[in-house]
Amino acid sequence: MARTPTGAAVLQPEVTQAIADAVMWELAEQGYGRLSMEAVAKRAGVGKSALYRRWVSKEQMIASVVTEFSVSRAAEVDTGSLRGDLRETMQALIDWLTHPLFSRILPDLVAEDARKPDRGRGLREAIGGPRREVGEAMLRRAIARGELAEDLDMELALDILAAPIYWRLVVRLAEAEPDYVDRLVEFALRALGAQGG
């Protein structure tokens, strides 16, 4: 069993979680531009050195925390049918976008990305890439079950599944009524040309 070298920093998971929580709150209250390492450290009840042991910069810290928060909420489910998988996936997407903190953070991240697209590219890829991989796996299972055509345009299909929810909740700031997910699932099934499911 390998031992930690003498003097090496041991990163305690509870401290990392306290810092991550502090980052999310600071992003929600102050925004990307005004967030400071000092404020995160104070809110988490740690020294700034605890932050720098985990991340080399404010940008890396924010990207890491927001990515972990976002990717962990992508629904990796296999209900046995495309209809069931779509329902779980779309509900998880709604839950992510309407999360009390994240719903306040996302518009600021989008605005920051528009101001500084090079900096935002890494965050977009870190969040969007894994979430799209989960969606693609769901669609590939549906193809294997014969619910979707083998020549499905995967990029367009993934856009079709996420875009209406993002547009409704983030751009229009409209509510998702109790039957919204079921209506959207039926619409998506038709748009994808689904068979059975």
UniProtKB/TrEMBL annotation:
UniProt KW keywords: DNA-binding, Transcription, Transcription regulation
UniProt DNA-binding region: 36-55
Signal peptide interval: none
Transcription regulation as UniProt keyword: yes
GO molecular function, one term: DNA-binding transcription factor activity
A Pfam short name: TetR_C_11
Keyword Lyase annotated: no
HTH tetR-type domain residues: 13-73
Protein name: Transcriptional regulator
Organism for this UniProt entry: Amycolatopsis camponoti
